[in-house]
Amino acid sequence: MYLELKDIRTGYPEKTVIDGLSVQFDEGEFCALIGPNGCGKSTLLKSMVRFLPLQSGSIYLDGKDTSGFSRKRFSREIALIPQDFHVQFDYPVEDIVLMGRFPYLDTWKDYTKSDRVAVEAILDQLDLTALRDKPFSRLSGGEQQRVSIARALAQDTRTILMDESFSHLDINHQLEIMHLIRSVNREQGKLVILVSHNINLAASYCPRVIMMKEGKLVADGTPTQVIVKDNLRKLFGIDIPVEINPRTQQPMVIYPS
């Protein structure tokens, strides 16, 4: 076990969203979090990267309580690819990806040669080399998402969290991003936790699926174990037919007319 969330209680000043959630992840897993709007998926991810403070409970990495980790040390372990990626100024692509190396900078020091070599390799891996000097605002949606992923890869963490990071993209770009993330997961052994509303896409790519509702876990297992009519009814309050995708042999929901 690499990552453990134990009795997590978190949310906002006006509302506790998650109360008493516990879940464990192994290094190298590819896991999807699915559930209705407002069920706590994004809140959980924000708490996992300290954007939201825990009200109680603990996060453990390799059995160590992360509450004592410095922000830099924590940022070397977990990276977040947000739903909407924005930059305050219109930096060029290479500078944005370099920002992922910030947790490794010494105080008042500039990026090192090794930082730039690492970024060069990532730009090449994500087919961004030709765009390295292009301002972020002039990129397409798919290109901007690849830059967001590149920055997370430059952060060189063992865990990557994705918060509905491609929900606004065309299907070709969604598939491109999923192929890319699956390759990173398999080749680099990174733990990937993906929040998605696309149940069929999650079932096709993620060997583990966790269902959430009202801040609690409803089901946790393989797509075949989890994506069934009874669980979908619990989540969404309607009957949704489920069949087996003949190409992937994974469950897929059939939208009623």
Structural description of this entry:
The protein has 257 residues and is α/β, with parallel strands linked by helices. The chain has 9 helices and 12 strands. Strand 11 (242-244) and strand 12 (251-253) form a beta hairpin. The mean pLDDT is 91. It is globular. The strands form 3 sheets. Strands 6-7-8-3-9-10 form a 6-stranded mixed sheet, with helices on both faces. Strands 2-1-4-5 form a 4-stranded antiparallel sheet, covered by helices on one side. A two-stranded antiparallel sheet has the order 11-12. The chain has helices at 41-48, 71-75, 93-98, 113-125, 141-154, 171-188, 199-205, 223-226, 229-236; strands at residues 3-12, 15-25, 30-34, 54-61, 64-65, 78-81, 159-163, 191-195, 208-213, 216-221, 242-244, 251-253.
Strand order of the largest sheet: 6-7-8-3-9-10
Oligomer: single chain
Tell me the fraction of residues in β-strands, as a range: 25-35%
| Overall shape | globular
> Share of helix among residues?
25-40%
> What class would the helix/strand composition place it in?
alpha/beta
What is the helix tally? 9
Query: What is the residue-averaged pLDDT?
Result: 91
Distance between the termini: 43 Å
**Rg, Å, rounded:** 19 Å
Question: Could you give the order of the helices and strands?
Answer: EEEHEEHEHHHEHEHEEHHEE
How many strand segments? 12
Report low-confidence residues grouped into runs of 5 or more: none
What summary fits the major beta sheet?
6 strands, mixed
